[in-house]
Design brief:
This protein is an alpha+beta fold. The chain has 12 helices and 10 strands. Strand 2 and strand 3 form a beta hairpin. The structure holds glutamine.
Length: 312
């Protein structure tokens, strides 16, 4: 990694340059089609936030507008499970990319109900079950975790988005029942689905997200509070899982173009981690064919290209 010090790079200037260069990327993708409530979100919005391990923060555009984090919640659920139950979760979920859409049933059926990784829907459902079995109020535990990481108590679940996904998310219901029939989910399927869907419906801004991920760039320690969130080894592993599984069947292309661990969600958010340097969150609601933010990926590509920061 080219080890530029923050002082040597004008991060705010870089964000301004990215915002300008991105203008041609809008209108090429489609706002999330799987959750009707998200279709009401105007597509050409853009925000970006950076939080460094030194505690510095930089924002541009709609960086403080809350949006639906969707699958970004899977990182928080994984971290919470690691905190509470440690490594036992790996008996029930794998660590390999799936090469298939995030809500695919195909591999799950073939592979006996053991999801490929924690960042596809099936894996997150198993983790939610694992968390619910070990914590009386899984939803509250994750919500408080996220609020404390972001230093923002107003982070909340958007009830309309949760309701909309409950009414239309048939594939997730199918996944959960398949998992239950293979004994990969032990708890009540409806409750697990409810918690999973509600945590996807959390709303956070780019700035909240950049703050919430900074400890993953800082060996597990939150730079603002000094609080140790996860042991260093777990942090390396969460980053490795994001690098290999964080963008579903678009993950190889993302590693090629951007070259950092990251996680996406169908609300149009993508959060990347540059170990020992910073976390960077971007929001642009129009998605590509894999359900990843089209302009968001381009923004991160420009960010690593112009900064020289990459893990490779
Ligand atoms: N709530 C969405 C789902 O379960 C999350 C998918 C995503 O963000 N990729 O389908």
């Amino acid at each position: 990694m080219q080890n530029l010090r923050f002082a040597e790079l004008d991060i705010q200037g870089l964000l301004r340059r990215i915002e300008q260069e991105l203008s041609s990327e809008f209108g090429k993708g489609q706002v999330c089609t799987t959750i009707p409530e998200l279709q009401t979100v105007p597509g050409s919005q853009f925000g970006m936030a950076v939080a460094t391990v030194n505690g510095d923060e930089f924002v541009i555009g709609a960086a403080e507008t809350p949006f639906s984090i969707q699958s970004l919640s899977k990182v928080f659920v994984l971290e919470k499970v690691l905190q509470i139950t440690g490594a036992s979760l790996w008996e029930r979920v794998g660590r390999e990319p799936s090469g298939l859409p995030f809500n695919s049933l195909a591999l799950l059926e073939i592979e006996g109900g053991v999801p490929r990784n924690p960042f596809i829907n099936a894996g997150a459902l198993v983790l939610t079950d694992h968390l619910a079995a070990n914590h009386a109020t899984a939803e509250k535990a994750v919500l408080q975790f996220v609020q404390s990481l972001s230093a923002n108590d107003s982070i909340a679940i958007n009830e309309r988005v949760a309701k909309s996904e409950k009414e239309t998310g048939g594939l997730n219901f199918a996944l959960a029942h398949l998992l239950r029939s293979r004994k990969s989910i032990a708890g009540n399927v409806d409750q697990i689905l409810d918690t999973y869907i509600r945590l996807c419906a959390l709303e956070m801004s780019c700035l909240d997200l950049a703050r919430a991920f900074t400890h993953l760039a800082n060996n597990g320690v939150c730079p603002r509070s000094g609080q140790s969130v996860l042991p260093e080894l777990d942090v390396r592993r969460v980053n490795a899982l994001m690098l290999t599984c964080g963008l579903y069947d678009g993950v190889g292309n993302f590693a090629y173009r951007v070259g950092i661990p990251a996680k996406s969600g169908v609300g149009g958010g993508v959060v990347g981690v540059i170990p020992r340097v910073l976390s960077v969150a971007v929001w642009a609601p129009e998605l590509d064919a894999q359900g990843n933010s089209l302009a968001g990926i381009s923004a991160l590509e420009l960010f690593t290209k112009y900064s020289g920061w990459s893990i490779f």
